[in-house]
Design a protein that fits this description.
Shape: globular
Distance between the termini: 69 Å
CATH topology of the largest domain: Heat Shock Protein 90
Strand content: 15-25%
Helix content: 25-40%
């Protein structure tokens, strides 16, 4: 009996380009499951099939292929057969002689965007597979639909929406887009320019409408809520702020603040950038004129580029998924429905561009919020390296059609970013709040300071509300508790279960220093724990 160490097999296959390997016994013939693996490899990142080897508890037993010539010819010709695969799959072959036994290796390359999904015929039915966690998984109809949208020669956002016209657009969003493209950068929708050309003429000029009918891009960018929902029934983006590190065992539901971009793309862009401007540190610095203070910190352009990538490249045709932005104490993570249409090497080196939504991408570039095509990721990487000495963590998963960018806050800024959140303008909360039942006794931007004055030792939420004389729980959480948690001045006794009925709160070391510096009075009769 012959055995082959996996590392030795990897070394022998060094000339192949592959990220995954599947061993098949194939001692007397090619197993039918091999063709499902070909489909899975072709639909994801490629891989290598090895015949004549079986995996026994992590060790590879070499059995050999009985008739390697016939097996190779049969397998290669079947992979190119129109009766077996929806498109021909070209595989590379290698023979390995291990202790006199022949092992066949076949490298399956990833297929092109317009060839996916690569389907295999099984029992007179066509199926597509993807590679997940070292196994072959049959695609669901929804997963196949994602492949088909990317394969379509007509990009999703360029399709004309039937029975549509300019009345389906939000006037303020359209004015903002027009004014910004003309170089008069508007900071809010309300400040958009009103002295514009006829909307229909302008839309036609920029390819957002054809003969008066709107493209999906126009409705995504500037549509009213009802008209935008015709194109994408889920929000444009969902931003959540957590009072924890990204590696803490916290549920995705345990956020402390949230922004749901359920309007159009322009509105989501403005709202998220405004929030980032309040979260990102902005050390005092002057512009090149030596007089004007710098408008924003050096980190903001990188985060803005990551945001624009999310708005530009997501799969807007997916009816069930939403792009997310997660802000933690140590990093910010952008998750995008829709994998990259470029290879990892093309993303790193730049100069190449492939967009799901070329019209949306063009409008983002014309507004000045996006880099020129093909430069976004390399520029973002170099800028973040210079700021934080750590490269962005970029993951593209072609199996689940998901793309993620993680930007870690390095040692220089990690200690201060979460505290900056406390200075965010609490008068504009992320989630619109219902009018409190009781008139707020303290202005929202004074909430954290007021809370510091009443926390002695540990206290429950109810106890803190009573000390502040507040009856409205929602107002207390929004205007008092959340700012103090995000600022790192107050922390939970059980941060893994923020909504626990046994939850208590106490001052951090920073909170104690802040209270001492502000010379805040303590509640009568209370003693510091």
């Amino acid at each position: 009996m012959s055995w082959l160490d996996p590392a030795d097999l990897h070394a022998r296959l060094r000339g192949f380009e592959w990220d995954d390997l599947e061993a098949k016994l194939a001692a007397t013939g090619i197993p039918s499951s091999a063709y499902a693996s070909v489909s899975a490899f072709a639909n994801t990142s490629g891989g290598c099939l090895v015949f004549g080897v079986q995996d026994v508890g992590g060790r590879l037993e070499v059995v050999g292929v009985g008739n390697p010539d016939a097996a190779q010819n049969d397998f290669v010709s079947t992979c190119r057969s129109a009766g077996t695969f929806s498109v021909p799959v070209d595989v590379r072959t290698a023979w390995l002689d291990i202790d006199g036994k022949i092992v066949l290796a076949f490298a399956v390359p990833p297929s092109g965007r317009h060839d996916r999904p690569v389907r295999v015929r099984e029992d007179r039915t066509w199926h597509a597979y993807v590679r997940v966690a070292g196994g072959d998984h049959r695609c669901t109809p929804r997963e196949e639909a994602r492949f088909l949208r990317d394969a379509d020669a007509t990009p999703f956002d360029t399709v004309i929406e039937p029975d549509s016209d300019a009345s389906m657009l939000d006037p303020r969003s359209l004015r903002w887009l027009q004014a910004t493209i003309r170089g008069r950068r508007a900071t809010t929708v309300e400040e958009g320019d009103t002295d514009t050309v006829d909307p229909s003429e302008w839309l036609d000029r920029f390819g957002l409408a054809v003969d008066g009918q709107l493209t999906r891009a126009a409705l995504l960018l500037c549509g009213t809520p009802a008209s935008r929902l015709r194109i994408k029934p889920t929000p444009i983006v969902d931003m959540r702020v957590y009072a924890t590190r990204s590696d803490d065992p916290v549920s995705a539901l345990e956020w402390i603040d949230r922004l749901v971009g359920d309007g159009n793309v322009v509105q989501a862009l403005i709202e998220v950038i405004a929030r980032l401007e309040r979260l990102v540190p902005n050390p005092f610095a002057l512009e090149s004129d030596g007089v004007t203070r710098r408008a924003h910190g050096p980190h903001l352009p990188v985060l803005r580029e990551a945001l624009v990538n999310v708005l530009t490249h997501q799969d807007y045709g997916d009816p069930a998924r939403t792009a997310t932005i997660r802000w933690f104490h140590d990093r910010i993570v952008f998750d995008n429905p829709g994998d990259s249409l470029l290879t990892p090497a093309e993303m790193r080196h730049g100069g190449s561009s492939a967009s799901r939504n070329p019209l949306v991408q063009r409008m983002m570039r014309l507004t000045g919020f996006a880099e020129h095509a093909g430069l976004g990721v390399p520029t973002m990487r170099s800028r973040w390296l210079s700021l934080e000495a750590s490269a962005p963590e970029i993951v593209s998963d072609p199996a689940s059609k998901w793309y993620q960018v993680g930007l870690a806050f390095g040692s220089i800024s990690a200690g201060g970013w979460h505290r900056i959140a406390a200075s965010a303008d609490q008068r504009a909360p992320l989630t619109p709040e219902v009018t409190p039942e009781v008139t707020p006794e303290v202005k929202p931007d004074e909430g954290a300071s007021a809370l510091l004055a009443v926390i002695i030792g540990e206290a429950t939420r109810r106890e803190l509300q009573q000390r502040l004389g507040l009856a409205d729980q929602k107002h207390f959480r929004t205007a008092y508790l959340r700012p103090a948690l995000v600022a790192g001045l107050v922390e939970m006794t059980d941060p893994t279960r923020p909504r626990s009925s046994h939850q208590r709160y106490h001052l951090t070391a920073a909170g104690k220093r802040c209270r001492a510096a502000m010379q805040l009075p303590s509640p009568a009769g209370a003693e510091e724990a």
